[in-house]
Amino acid sequence: MSLLAADLPDPGLAAFGQDPWWVVLLKAVLIFVVLVVLTLFNIWFERRVVARMQHRVGPNVHGPFGLLQSLADGVKLALKEDIIPKAADKVVFILAPVIAVVPAFVTWAVIPLGPEVNFFGHRTPLQLTDMPVAVLFMLAIASIGIYGIVLGGWSSGSTYSLLGGLRSSAQMISYEVAMGLALVAVFLYAGSMSTSEIVAAQDRLWFGLILAPSFVIYVISMIGETNRAPFDLPEAEGELVGGFHTEYSSLKFALFFLAEYINLATVSAIATTLFLGGWAAPWGVENVWEGANSGYWPLLWFFGKVFIFIFLFVWLRGSLPRMRYDQFMALGWKILIPVALAWTVAVATIRVISLEAENGINRTYLVAAIAVLLVLTVGLMFVPERKDDERDAAEAGDEPHDAFAGGFPVPPMPAGGARRGAAEPLSFTHAPGGRTTVTASAEENHE
């Protein structure tokens, strides 16, 4: 039994670019409004879920169940004093939040929210536009948003903000490589980079099941890409005060906050589109309800899947501590990227064999070779690192090295004095008048 109905409507790319200007404008405005409202809800949802996990109440005063708390916080930020540091580059300092938030909205232009519907008397897809390289467009726009964080940290004139911006650029380079490799397998199976065609290609089976390693790698990478816990190193308040936005206040800080939560919904929507069948109904629903994939009902399935990922973000934030920076980078370069490379080669080989049945290659041997490749790749990731030569020499000796031998180690004196151990005995000399002289000398003690 298929996870999705096999007869899903597939209008293709020809259905786009035919809408009148007022339909395009109305679609864009609706996407903007939905994302703003979704951000307010996500902030409330995160605070309520984390409060439950920590046995607290959470927001419950403003509005029913505290739903208006996020709106009250937004008004408070808008009324706060806007401060620009003297050492800041004012132009870049003001533009950085805008650069961060605009790409977050633009990415939703190519995300399919549903099939063709009757939109105020006009037949149009529930998607603003589509293109043959829509997924690459989303990755490119998401990369531009990272520059807002980098430039915001650099332009603040603060060391803490600069370090947060540098960390963000390192995260972007590291985890976008793994993310891009995870999506290659999707392109190979779908035969297209168009988002609407990728959704149509999952009419029988979701790619999240048949390409499970790619799905897991993408989920890990999207958490690192959005700077969310446990990968929120650019804004690690325990180390960098507030990270890249330390010097920001008022509406400019609110724009950074808005960009973070819209990106959270954006990567969730991309995961839904590429791995969970997009707007199509879950398995079995189409069999009992013929209209599940028609009209505006697919919006329910799409946002239901998106909220599953949003709950995952919140769950991780309330459960896991922040990683060390070296551990975070090692996870990306030493684990995710090698596994993604091996899996991409395996998927490409399987697709070639399945598409060319006349090649005469035994599939059993092929599968065995792929399994060996994956085992070797995973095994190489867990080979212990070679230690320093000095540590190797100490371990090769007959007796273990004791770093505290002779007392607690003391650094050399500024004037070039000899290195002493804190365990050297002290001599007390009492002089007339009540003055006492303290000296550290092993020779005097032995005498």
From TrEMBL:
Reactions this protein catalyses: a quinone + NADH + 5 H(+)(in) = a quinol + NAD(+) + 4 H(+)(out)
Membrane spanning stretches: 20-45, 91-111, 131-152, 173-193, 205-224, 253-276, 296-316, 328-353, 365-383
Taxonomic superkingdom: Bacteria
The protein's enzyme class: translocase
Keyword NAD: yes
The species this protein was found in: Nocardioides glacieisoli
Regions of compositional bias (Basic and acidic residues) in chain numbering: 389-402
Protein name: NADH-quinone oxidoreductase subunit H
Lineage: Bacteria, Bacillati, Actinomycetota, Actinomycetes, Propionibacteriales
InterPro entries: NADH_UbQ_OxRdtase_su1/FPO, NADH_UbQ_OxRdtase_su1_CS
